[in-house]
Amino acid sequence: QVQLVESGGGLVQPGGSLRLSCASSRSISGVVVMGWYRQAPGGQREFVARLAAGAAPFYKSAVEGRFTISRDVDKNTVYLQMNNLKPEDTAVYYCYYDDYRNKYWGQGTQVTVSS
Prior knowledge:
The protein has strands at 4-7, 10-12, 18-24, 33-39, 45-52, 58-59, 67-72, 77-82, 91-98, 103-105, 109-113. The protein is mainly β. The N and C termini lie far apart (40 Å).
């Protein structure tokens, strides 16, 4: 079992920045994919970003250029740096860990972008 704990969400004004963190109870090195989905109020869960071993980061087109996914292997933590936030970024953000057998999810962290 993998436990994922997200943090860093909150309320921010349009144009502001937040950095989300996802701490994994298991190693994130090796053949593991980690990333983020989000679900807006009344909306569908949608892919945001992922980082696979040995691959370049991949992003939803709507966030590319504004969001950056990164990892710290020593801390077993994945980050999502979110810049120039827009109201449409408002959602619960969920971290995931995919070991190609199972996909594990965090509990989510709320991001609200509002003036």
